[in-house]
Specification:
Length: 92
């Protein structure tokens, strides 16, 4: 899985792309990512981010992720978020 690859490579963040569905499968996937990271004992080490045209930060956080980015987001927005989160983690 993507989390095992993150663990093996020492990644600090995992970004996923998801499509909002009527059956809320996207929410199930985001929650599963969060829960699996906890089960693997790596949740505290990772910044988990979801993106997609209709993903919102509120929705991603509700599903246990650190942030969400939707329509109109730039790479700079995401990179700035990651830098801020890494700085917060180092300050703790």
């Amino acid at each position: 899985t993507v989390l095992k690859q993150a663990q093996q490579t020492g990644a600090r963040e995992v970004l996923i792309s998801t499509i909002v569905t009527h059956a809320n499968v996207h929410q199930q996937h985001m929650r599963h990512l969060h829960e699996l990271a906890k089960q693997l004992g790596i949740r505290q080490q990772l910044i988990l981010i979801a993106g997609g045209t209709q993903v919102t930060d509120k929705l991603a956080r509700k599903c246990g992720l650190d942030g969400g980015f939707g329509r109109g987001t730039t790479g700079q927005d995401v990179a700035s978020f990651i830098v801020r989160k890494l700085q917060e983690t180092q300050a703790k």
